[in-house]
Design a protein that fits this description.
Blueprint (H helix, E strand, L loop, with lengths): L16 H11 L3 H25 L6 H17 L23 E3 L8 E3 L2 H8 L1 E2 L5 E3 L1 H7 L10 E8 L2 E8 L2 E7 L5 E3 L2 H4 L17 E10 L1 H13 L8 H9 L5 H5 L2 E8 L8 H11 L7 E4 L1 H14 L7 E8 L2 H7 L1 E2 L2 E2 L2 E5 L3 E14 L5 E12 L2 E7 L3 H6 L1 E4 L16 E2 L6 E6 L6 E6 L24 E3 L9 E3 L7 H12 L11 H9 L14 H4 L7 H13 L5 H7 L7 H11 L2 H6 L2 H5 L6 H11 L2 H12 L23 E5 L7 H10 L3 E2 L9 E4 L5 H9 L2 E3 L1 H8 L7
Parallel strand pairs: 2-15, 19-22, 25-26, 25-27, 27-28
Antiparallel strand pairs: 1-8, 3-4, 5-11, 5-12, 6-7, 6-9, 9-10, 12-15, 13-14, 16-17, 16-21, 17-18, 19-20, 21-22, 23-24
Helix pairs in contact: 1-3, 2-3, 4-11, 14-15, 18-19
Bound molecules: 2-(butylsulfanyl)adenosine (IVH).
């Protein structure tokens, strides 16, 4: 639906007649007319949100919704005092917060006891001894308390156990006022600013008689399809994919900036209430929450524990068809009076238990093993599989990690579901991967599935083992084996041909141009491939000799794009030292190490001249990393490339090392405002570095602000800074300032 997509969340273009009529109508309103219209529009829009997001039964199409939304937005622009706290326009991410204050749960948020088998569930209901006497379980407690009779059947609710971030929402007199994470159950973090933006969190309860205070509990989940799509885009852009939806949802909710939360497909699903709502049964509570405007967890009513077991099995069958991830089922005694009799043990209710599904496992035939060559020449075996669904995703290939894993660490399984075979000594039997093997794949919490081993089939007898090639599959150069004397199983097999190997050259160029390195906008994978194939670029320094005449004729280029690219390449000549170091792609030198090196040595020449002792003296650099750096800096091919980069105008600017005493104080007394998305760090990181250097970070721009650091999509704060004539920096400017290299003139 159009109104929940796009960057601002409100992509309504005011281009056509209907939209112009809305604009004209709003322009003609006086304040009284506008107030009357707001009183109609807000509940109307909230109702459509509910119909669409909670019930899934929209009454109007996207276009009509967008027009109503736009009308409200225009009225609020003209008459800001009419902007109500429950206005749906508040869902677009507002101002970032400076930190997440503590959030207290007046009623503690508890945890659940776990069950892993049908028998655990039966024991939850009742345990009997050999002579059949009732010894434990909730049936005994209820009988002993006189709450049920011998023949009574206990009714349960079975719900999905939602695999997200536990959140409490607070409504006062019907209005959403706050949200907090579970934390330790008593105190969590205040995440009102991000949770407010979720499309299915109602800003106001649907009731004329709201309780003075209602707290609703549930989970925030990342919709699976949106998650996979986001990872696809990240991978295309050469960024690391996120590990799993749960952690990503948690990371998004706990950000200071509400922007990402407002753009990502996050859902809040309610499963209980803390204060303000008591009903005779749990099922009635869920129904009531739904009527109040919340998306609630689906449930099934079950009479007795055997029905519960069957319902859990049914849910297990469809768990991967749900649009979000669940990791089990929660079983709750339905009757609230019985819940009260049962009460709590320490941190969990006695009336509920969580059943955890085992991780999904399947088997599928191996088609082939492809040996892929990475940026540093390391050759990794990747299993090509007959496509198979596991844990809700389709898998076509999976890494085998390294030679040791592939040739020694495959477990033997009698079946995909079975336990790995063990030898007489009780140890798991391990083997190497063979041609024609059927592999066993598991997807636990993370998106990337693991190969656990292979099926133990008679056909394996005499089948050829998969072995590493002797020559690089891309360039044909003889491969090197690098033994690791301390860990003999960690052999690295590498193509030493470096930039002479097309795989390594392309990966190196991609790394060099990446957002966190030289940040050359417009130099994507396809273009890099063309440049390499045509022999136009054989090393990173060649990029600096490209001109419009050479680039324009390439596929999907043209004069304009070529000119933009040349300009972007030119801008990259002046990146700060730490980024240049990272861009060089020294093995083991990531962004953090590059930053440490730049700060410790202050110049490229000092780093090139550093010996082992000097490198080891840097905090965070150990013997392995030091060895890699020395290998790099003593290789004449690298020195030559650095010389070429310099000759082509890449500056490698020195870092002015502040005196030891006030090393942390370069920004003493300076006030900063951060806005927009910075290319290589979060605003949190930027704020931490400013504070560490003695500066202060505040929320809003005023005449007293010294600097505004503006990233992508900077909004009103940037405009304000321009208006007040406050110095505006981009990320590079900030880094230069932090390093004391910014030219103040
Ligand atoms: S009821 C007093 N129902 O699991 C019982 N919790 O171990 C309170 N969870 O982080 C929770 N799905 O947020 C309940 N259908 C469900 C649930 C659920 C997930 C989470 C809950 C908490 C944890 C408890």
């Amino acid at each position: 639906m159009a109104h929940d997509e796009g960057d601002a969340g409100i992509p309504t273009p005011l281009g056509d007649d209907a939209a112009r009529r809305v604009a004209a109508r709003v322009a003609a309103m006086d304040e009284a007319a506008a107030a009357a219209r707001v009183a109609e529009l807000v509940p109307e829009l909230l109702r459509h949100n509910y119909l669409y997001h909670v019930l899934g039964t929209p009454e109007i199409d996207d276009r009509s919704y967008d027009l109503l939304y736009r009308e409200l937005e225009l009225i609020e622009e003209r008459f800001p005092s009419l902007r109500r706290p429950d206005s749906p326009t508040r869902k677009v991410g507002g101002e970032p917060v400076d930190f997440l204050p503590p959030f207290e749960h007046r009623v503690p948020m508890l945890s659940l006891a776990n069950a892993f088998s049908a028998d655990d569930l039966r024991d939850f209901e009742e345990r009997r001894d050999d002579s059949g006497r009732l010894r434990g379980g909730i049936r005994k407690l209820l009988l002993d308390a006189g709450a049920i009779g011998e023949d009574d059947v206990i009714t349960y609710v079975v719900e999905p156990k939602l695999d997200g971030l536990a959140i409490e929402l607070v409504y006062e007199h019907g209005l959403f006022v706050a949200a907090g994470t579970r934390g330790d159950g008593r105190v969590g973090e205040d995440v009102t600013h991000t949770v407010r933006t979720l499309r299915n969190v109602p800003p106001r309860l649907f009731t004329d008689a709201p309780p003075p205070r209602l707290t609703v509990r549930g989970e925030v989940l990342f919709e699976l399809e949106g998650f996979l799509e986001m990872n696809r885009r990240r991978e295309e852009a050469g960024e690391k994919p996120y590990e799993n939806p749960r952690n990503t949802a948690a990371g998004t909710i706990r950000q200071l900036d509400p922007g990402p939360a407002s753009r990502r497909p996050l859902l809040f699903i309610a499963h209980s209430a803390g204060e303000g709502l008591v009903l005779p049964t749990h099922a009635a509570l869920l129904d009531r929450l739904r009527a109040l405007g919340f998306q609630t967890n689906e449930y099934e009513l079950c009479a007795g524990i055997e029905e519960v077991i069957a319902a859990i099995a049914r849910l297990g069958e469809r768990r991967h068809d749900l649009p979000y991830e669940i990791d089990g089922a929660v079983v709750k005694v339905n009757d609230t009076a019985l819940q009260e009799v049962l009460g709590f043990v320490t941190r969990s209710p006695r009336w509920a238990i969580a059943y955890k599904y085992p991780p999904d496992r399947v088997s599928t035939p191996l088609e082939s093993v492809v040996f892929s060559v990475g940026r540093t020449g390391v050759v990794t075996p990747v299993a090509q599989l007959v496509p198979v669904r596991v844990g809700g995703v389709t898998v076509r290939n999976a890494t085998l990690h390294n030679e040791h894993q592939m040739s020694r660490e495959m477990r033997l399984f009698p079946s995909a579901q079975g336990e790995p075979l063990r030898g007489a000594d009780g140890e798991e039997i391990k083997t190497g991967l063979r041609h024609g093997d059927v592999v066993v794949l598991q997807r636990a919490g993370d998106v990337i599935p693991q190969i656990l081993g292979v099926l133990d089939r008679p056909e394996r007898q005499g089948a050829r083992p998969w072995v590493y090639p002797e020559d690089c599959p891309v360039c044909g150069h003889r491969l090197d084996r690098e033994e690791n004397p301390k860990e003999p199983e960690k052999v690295t097999i590498r193509c030493p041909n470096r930039l002479g190997c097309r795989a390594q050259l392309q990966a190196s160029l991609k790394h060099f141009a990446g957002r966190r390195a030289m940040d050359i906008e417009g130099l994507g994978d396809k273009l890099i491939a063309q440049l390499v194939e045509r022999g136009l670029v054989t090393r990173p320094s060649d990029l600096y000799h490209l001109d419009v005449a050479t680039l324009a004729p390439l596929e999907r280029m043209g004069e304009k794009s070529a000119a933009n690219l040349v300009a972007a390449i030119d801008r990259s000549r002046r990146r700060p030292l730490e980024r240049c170091l990272f861009a060089l792609g020294i093995p083991q030198v990531g962004e953090a190490t590059a930053r440490d090196l730049a700060a410790a040595f202050g110049s490229l020449d000092a780093i090139l001249a550093a010996d082992e002792a000097a490198l080891l003296a840097v905090d965070g650099i150990g013997p392995d990393v030091a060895r890699r750096i020395l290998e790099f800096t003593s290789d004449p091919r690298n020195l030559e490339e650095i010389a070429r980069l310099r000759a082509a105008g890449v500056v490698f600017p020195d870092v002015e090392k502040p005196a030891q005493d006030d090393a942390a104080k370069v920004l003493d007394g300076k006030t900063f405002v951060l806005t927009g998305t910075l290319p290589s760090m979060t605003r949190d990181e930027a704020a931490a570095r400013i504070v560490a250097a003695g500066g202060k970070v505040v929320k809003s721009v005023s005449r007293r602000t010294d600097y505004v650091v503006a990233g992508d999509k900077a909004g009103s704060k940037l405009a304000k800074a321009q208006e007040l004539g406050v110095t505006i920096l981009d990320e590079d400017g900030l880094l230069a300032l932090l390093q004391g290299t910014r030219d103040e003139s």
